[in-house]
Design brief:
Elements (H helix, E strand, L loop, with lengths): L4 E4 L4 E3 L4 H10 L11 E4 L14 E6 L6 H10 L11 H4 L4 E8 L2 E8 L5 E11 L2 E11 L7 E4 L4 E4 L2 H7 L12 H14 L3 E3 L8 H12 L10 H10 L7 E3 L2 E4 L2 H11 L3 E3 L6 E3 L11
Parallel strand pairs: 3-4, 11-13
Antiparallel strand pairs: 1-2, 1-5, 4-10, 5-6, 6-9, 7-8, 9-10, 12-13, 14-15
Helix pairs in contact: 5-6, 6-8
């Protein structure tokens, strides 16, 4: 297993450094990321989805991925580190697209991968700096800066087939398919969702009974509530309507008294697609596409 810092844009993998000294320097300066995480307590997420854990005390959730239907997709990442030299170095254009830093290593015969998520907030387009070098102040103008943090968002233990995380948002950002294991909404959650939408987003009338919400939508609804995603839609009815018209979503929904009616599970599916902004136009083909579930990234503004 080649222990080398890699980056991925979710489709392709790249070697971060072409210079071995840069690799050595970043490892020396960021010991937490480049070593095995010391866990004080670990909790199986499926048994403890509502547990409050302490990051300061190194408590972590884990998911057994030996039974999930995309297990091979997770294990495939380890193959990257069998031949890191076959992957290209990050180019200037690739640099702007990366979503994760990935580092694989062996610890006491265990194969481990540490992962750090890269979001919009990590990027700084340009910056002017005053630096102290050998007791002298130097001026430097830097472009395309990417902040690297000495921390791990997710790590994978291949031997035990476990993936560890402290915040479910990090796990979902790494792979949207993990949303399938998220906790389901209870009746109180459904009521809160309906009340919020009906009171704050005038385009919709949500009347779907809790017992009509199917498993997949129940988990997505719960995720929306837990992450306050609806807050971003308040006062944006014109933008929402334009989005609905652009992607012809209105053909899937009933419309009465100036509102889109959400009273069946299929209606809720359309509303959740809007909330996750899953409809988009392909950059190359310019076709209307539907994503399986978009990541929530930080905003630079």
């Amino acid at each position: 297993m080649n222990s080398k810092l890699m980056a991925t844009d979710k489709h392709n993998f790249y070697s971060v450094f072409g210079n071995i000294q840069d690799e050595t320097n970043i490892k020396n300066d960021n010991e937490i990321f480049f070593n095995k995480i010391d866990i004080s307590n670990e909790y199986k997420y499926l048994n403890n989805p509502d547990r409050m854990i302490s990051k300061e005390d190194n408590e972590w959730f884990f998911v057994d991925f030996n039974s999930i239907d995309f297990r091979d997709e997770i294990l495939e990442i380890f193959n990257i580190f069998n031949n890191t030299g076959s992957y290209p170095n990050l180019s200037r254009d690739d640099f702007k697209k990366i979503k994760h830093f990935v580092y694989g290593f062996i610890y006491e015969n265990n194969h481990i991968i540490n992962i750090q998520n890269v979001k919009n907030g990590n990027f700084i387009k340009n910056k002017t700096l005053l630096k102290v070098i050998s007791n002298n102040v130097k001026y430097e103008k830097a472009e395309q800066i990417l902040t690297f943090y000495n921390e791990v968002d997710i790590f994978i233990d291949r031997n035990n087939e476990k993936i560890y995380f402290q915040d479910f948002k990090d796990l979902k950002y790494f792979n949207n398919k993990f949303l399938a294991i998220y906790k389901e909404a209870i009746e109180e959650d459904s009521a809160n969702f309906k009340e919020f939408v009906n009171s704050n987003i005038s385009l919709f009338s949500v009347n779907i009974p809790h017992n009509k919400i199917r498993n997949r939508n129940s988990k997505k609804l719960k995720y929306v509530l837990d992450n306050n995603m609806l807050d971003g839609f308040i006062g944006k009815e014109n933008i929402i309507r334009e989005y609905i018209n652009t992607y012809n979503i209105s053909t899937k929904l009933k419309y009465e008294n100036d509102k889109f009616i959400i009273d069946e599970n299929k209606d809720l599916t359309s509303l959740i697609e809007i909330i996750f902004e899953q409809h988009y136009t392909g950059a190359i083909t310019e076709q209307h596409l539907l994503a399986s579930g978009n990541e929530i990234v930080e905003n630079n503004s």
